[in-house]
Amino acid sequence: MDNQDLKKLLQKSSSAEMLSRRDALKLMGISPIAAGVLASTSSSAITSAEAADVSGKIVIVGGGAGAIMALARLHRGISKPDITIIAPNELHIYQPGQVFQAAGLYTHDDLIKHNSEFIPDDVNWIKDAVESFDPDNNTLTTRSGEKVDYDYLVVAAGIDYRYEWIRGLKEEDIGTRGISSVYLNNFEKGTTDGGSITWDWFNALKQAAATENRKQRVIYTQPGTAIKCGGAPQKILYLSADHLKKEGLSADYVFATAGGKLFSLKPIADSLQEVQKGYDHITNKFKHKLIAIDKYAKIATFEHTYEIQGEYDEDLEEYDTITKRELVEMKYDFIHIVPPMTAAKAVHTSKLGWQKGTGRGWLEVDKETLQHRRYKNVFGIGDVCGIPMGKTGGSARHHAPIMVANLLSEMQNKTLKEKFDGYTVCPLKVEYGKIIMAEFNYDGLAPSIPFLAPENPSRLWWFFDLHMLKSMYWYLMMRGLM
């Protein structure tokens, strides 16, 4: 099915809360993959088509996936909406596609549309970013100094990349001296440089592997902070290794992660261990956090944390555990860097963020209702939320109906009944043509299609992700129709 079919169906369904599953499946070519994805959207929060007769000024902060999905559902779900969106970006990036761009399968133009396609004319669009929040007075201030008040606030401000936290590294270094990062982009300008730079990096690595008389050492890093799409560092590892493998080439690959395992869920981690056996010379360096880089000498410095056994405690009848730290230097020829990440600065430095604990700085919302724990007229959606999991586009899609239903209940002084179950999805691209579709929630694995074992690499999921998901994103998800 092409985009014209999707547009026709949108016209047909313009007055409905969402597409019928039958019509959506028709557009998706009656695919069993799409059927499973659509089936996973069944929720009372999604299927209600009745517009609420509520009043109050709603301000949405952000112009990415979460913000636009929230806007679409709120605009349709309120009979006389009074909505302002504060978003500096006129261009919208299909972020899940940047890994495919890095693999040479998408171009920049495949990833870009104008936000004007998704923001209705009767919505007040302030093309600016938020500088600060004052939730005690229900106001915020934009970067240009404009003060905006609200009755209800939806925070979808996203994530900031903190390359500068790595000593010796600047954003402008990405794309030089063997350094790449698929994450590099500029949301306000709508650039996706990280994808194209990483594709060039793939090919430079292949050229070096083919012409140098020694194995190239390639390091792939993962920071100690929460990150957007936690599987992306490994996706780049496997796709770049497969890019070489197809030419009969290999390199000395090092996956250096601040974490202690390949994946949080054992079945997926075990499967990734098997995947790694298909590539030569992959070494995992767990508990290794990149803290500095010498781009001229091509040396990366990591903080390695590990535990040793201490003295025996007779009262507890066990040995103390002592955490040790050491600095480890690694030489490299090529390095792919995933930067540390924080909530957007305006949230990170405000009263809206968690004030202490491991989630400090991320938006302090209840992990189920997505309502702020201290400011009840504030809700969150997307990557900015300080909840145990959910920094993926798939999570935002599941956030949207839950958050909107609960916001409408709050506006009507009703009990918040809808609960987010922690759903997130990580399409781990383990080679060209195969994906491990790791879907899980707060309770563990949660596959959309139970008969497809989520830990098994699948060609069907690759086909879905590469050829179907982008159209679903633009024409269904961004319009609040699924």
Judged by helices, strands and strand pairing, the structural class is alpha/beta
Number of helical regions: 12
Largest sheet: 5 strands, parallel
How many structural domains can be distinguished in the coordinates? Answer: 2
The CATH architecture category of the largest domain equals 3-Layer(bba) Sandwich
Strand order of the largest sheet: 5-2-1-9-20
| Average pLDDT number | 90
Gyration radius over CA? 23 Å
The termini sit apart by 17 Å
Q: Which CATH class of the largest domain applies here? A: Alpha Beta
CATH superfamily of the largest domain: FAD/NAD(P)-binding domain
* Helical coverage, percent range: 25-40%
CATH topology of the largest domain: FAD/NAD(P)-binding domain
Shape label: globular
Ranges where pLDDT stays below 50 over 5 or more residues in a row are 9-33, 39-48
Give a brief description.
This protein is an alpha/beta fold and 482 residues long.
Fold blueprint:
Elements: H1 3-12, H2 21-27, H3 32-39, H4 44-47, E1 58-61, H5 65-77, E2 83-86, E3 91-93, H6 98-102, E4 112-114, E5 124-126, E6 130-134, E7 139-142, E8 147-149, E9 152-155, E10 159-161, E11 179-180, H7 193-211, E12 217-222, H8 232-245, E13 252-257, H9 266-277, E14 282-285, E15 288-294, E16 299-313, E17 318-331, E18 334-336, E19 341-343, H10 345-348, E20 378-380, H11 393-411, E21 424-431, E22 434-441, E23 444-445, H12 459-475
Parallel strand pairs: 1-2, 1-9, 2-5, 9-20, 11-18, 12-13, 12-18, 13-14
Antiparallel strand pairs: 3-4, 6-7, 7-8, 10-19, 15-16, 16-17, 21-22, 22-23
